[in-house]
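As agreed, record minuted below.
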Amino acid sequence: MAGTIEVLVPGGQANPGPPLGPELGPTPVDVQAVVQEINDQTAAFDGTEVPVTVEYDDDGSFDIDVGVPPTAALVKDEAGFETGSGEPQKDFVADLSIEQVKTIAEQKHPDLLAYDTKNAAKEVVGTCASMGVTIEGDDAREFKNKVDDGDYDDVLLE
């Protein structure tokens, strides 16, 4: 590859303006084609900052590698709040459903150490605990115990 560009773009909303356009302008690639490809690949992260790497050749061909946003960003986006709790064990800022936890776990799974969705969900729940987010009305630690006991296997092992 002739070069590499790494940028953060809002999922599904990349455009030829900054930060992408000025980086791609001097390269031989079709900027609009790169933007369209990034938007197609990041649509699931609607509006959340996503790390993207564009590798290009002198002939104008390119490859795009889309990273996954941090777990905390996915939790905030899914639950709809701006900042976590200053006292996450006492002051709760949001509540997620098991389906929302599963969605985040599936999005984040490639970057996690977990072998399956159930264990990926437990990693997501760990992030929720430090942010002051409850799951199904339970404290994240209580919820993790329920997951360990198999209470949510019907959802997480589908």
